[in-house]
Amino acid sequence: MYKIKIDKLVFGGQGLGKIIDEGPQKGQIVFVWNALPGEVVEADVIKKKKTYIEAVARKILTVSSDRIEAQEEHFHSCSPWQIITSEREREWKAEMTRETYERLADLPVAKIDLVDLGIEYGYRNKMEYSFAEEEEGGRITFGFFERGGRFALAIGDEGCVLADPAINVTAKKVLEWVREQKITKRSLKSLVVRANRVGETVAALFIKDKMEFEDLPELDEKWRGFQVYYSTHMSPSSVPTELLYGIGQDFLDETILGVKMKYGLLSFFQISPVIFEEALKDITKEIPKNADILDFYSGVGAISLPLHDQVRSAVLVDNSEEGIQYANENIMALGAKKYRAECVPAERITDLITPKKFLILDPPRVGLHSDVVRAIMTDGPETIAYLSCNIATQARDIKLLAEKYHVEKLRAYNFFPRTPHVEGLVILKRH
């Protein structure tokens, strides 16, 4: 255990500091969870590299005035910024965002406009719970993986405060059924539960053995569907290898800016629709009347479908079969005949990128494929709206496009309060 003085918060969410103990490690840089600027902490090492150490503070020797009591004991695993005031959270997020764009995109930004709606908890419409055994009695309960750990730690039956309350209600019902069926920890992988804004839920249990059950949980007016998937032990993630049981529906409906759309239990959809709508309003302001839109990484169409009144045509592109299936259903339900959806990786259909299109980008965390960047540099449109859940890769892509494009507008959104993550929107204009 080391004694560390914390100087600042950094992009990943940790406190950055140096070891102050006398000895050969003195002055070593350490990234510390559960630590705030100005604090002196005693921390356990969870990862050691040549140039830095990662650690978790176990004892706070000097307490920051910005520190508040966390809402739950497992905050390290789900939302490590439960320990900081909301005001300081916003300030640090704005500063970290500014530094990231400046460092990775060579983009000088005097001040970041961070959109925050004042929602701190209960905002997530999707949760994935692992399973663990209670210390006393060994009963199955929910679990989260500790920072730097390989095993899920028990967090109790009530779930997580970040989740929409309807999610935790449904999750607890599944947990009770798991106990009734006497499914062992060894056979359990995870539970995914989604909710919409009217409190309807669907759930999927992933297990590592092909098991048979005589009874399934009883659905109700709000709990609309339950699936049990065999998920191969060859993958640590919850992949749906084979559907074993299914009752009710495996989708939900959500209304985004007045447009109702359907999305699957396992397909991508925005985690916090309320603040997503704020980003969508900002994108809407940039789209000229009767524009021809190209929506790359479209998912079920959550960005481009609400724009249907002001566009002439739209092509939605995504490599998720389920996502495009629901995109087509949403197009038909809306009667948007000027829309079409293509199930293909964006990098394989770059011929759709032309100077006259309005390009919307909302890629996964890895950012844009190099072939997409190359196509934009060759035949890119006048305007691009680039929304990202990872501002580091977004900043990298901005730098790659800088020869042909400049940042006209930049805005950040607090999509994930009580965590270090932000969402970034940049409007790029061709020189």
Structural descriptors:
about 425 residues; alpha/beta; eight-stranded mixed beta sheet; seven-stranded mixed beta sheet; 22 strands; about 20% helix
Secondary structure topology:
Layout: E1 2-9, E2 15-19, E3 29-33, E4 40-48, E5 53-62, H1 75-78, H2 86-105, E6 114-115, E7 126-133, E8 140-145, E9 152-156, H3 165-180, E10 188-195, E11 201-207, E12 223-230, E13 242-248, E14 251-256, E15 259-264, H4 273-286, E16 291-296, E17 311-318, H5 321-334, E18 339-343, E19 358-361, H6 370-379, E20 383-388, H7 391-401, E21 405-413, E22 423-430
Helix pairs in contact: 2-7
Structure description:
By secondary structure, the chain is an alpha/beta fold. The protein is 21% helix and 34% strand. It has 7 helices and 22 strands. The strands form 4 sheets. Strands 6-21-22-20-19-16-17-18 form an 8-stranded mixed beta sheet, with helices on both faces. The protein has a 7-stranded mixed beta sheet with strand order 9-8-7-10-11-12-13, with helices on one face. Strands 1-2-3-5-4 form a 5-stranded mixed barrel. Helix 2 runs parallel beside helix 7. It is globular, with a radius of gyration of 23 Å. The model has no long low-confidence stretch (mean pLDDT 95).
